[in-house]
Amino acid sequence: MPSRPALSGRVSRRASLLIALAAASPWALAQNTGKTAAAPAPLAWPTKPLKIIVGFPAGSSPDLTARTFSEPLSKALGQPVIVDNKVGAGGNIGADAVAKARDDHTIGLMINGNMTIAKLLNPAVPYDPIKDLAPLSLIGTSPLILTAPVNQPGVPANVSARDFFVAARNGGDKWSYGTPGVGTVGHIGTELLKARSNINPVHVPYPGYPQVANAMLGGQLQMALLPPALAQAQMRAGKLRAIGVTSSGRSPLAPEVPSLAEAGISNFNLEIWNAFAAPSTMPKPIQAKLAALISEIARSEEVRGKLFQQGWQTVGSSPEGLANRIKADTNLLGGVIAMRGIKVE
């Protein structure tokens, strides 16, 4: 029987690196000891500061969430954690920067649109949310509140939610609603609400939620879906009123606001959320370590309290939990995009 040819004594640099990573990982050590390791990762990582890219400006909700994690994550990793704001295109510029990062020390804090419907809204978006981003952890969720002006012509101040929708149907396209822009969850969610409730207000996009609230206060809009913190501030001031919250039931973030189901809009469940993601090219052991740390930090009492104050109900999911949420929301919001023909150029 012929003998096997001798293996070459030369091993490629990449093969040597992969062998070293495998040998150094807690998973490999666990195999040798018979014990289970919770978060496999190369022992030599991280070797420099970790960067969190945020696609929105300093002081924005995603930025505040990223900075809430930067200190505890730095302590856990033993390296500085830097928040880098790359602003524009509804967060897609930042998401693209994360997708293209190749230093194994860059992750991103995303909103749901960046990880679900970005490519459906605009095929020219330079990254693919499914192929180019690796889910790490779903951090927080929040419903929106359907809000209307208190002093609205033709609508009594103490009108019930059901009667509000009657007034909206009667208003037809003479009514208008505002959002932070075409293709945002506020836009797609209101189009879904229009289909479910048989109302037909006209869409008016604004630069952000504060401008939407101001337009309602000025009488230019009859309704809008607003984040709870903004809506509640105006409600407490007696300037706006809540019609219903978009979660399936009442939300801990706004327990005083009835759900839209209580207003007769059945099977309506819409939330905004934020999450951490990594480039899909980041080695799986590093992804696993980051996911475990981020999830643990999110569920800590201190961080949960801070996120609640920022308007988020904390989740701190596994990568699989985030992947499932991405799939469900892509199907829901993608269906509305197709039904209404929504496109972002």
TrEMBL record:
Pfam families: TctC
InterPro entries named among the record's database cross-references: BUG (IPR005064), Bug_dom1 (IPR042100)
Residues annotated as signal peptide: 1-30
Keyword terms, alphabetized: Signal
Keyword Signal: yes
Coiled-coil segments on the chain, per record: none
Family, similarity comment: Belongs to the UPF0065 (bug) family.
Entry protein name: Tripartite tricarboxylate transporter substrate binding protein
Native source species: Acidovorax benzenivorans
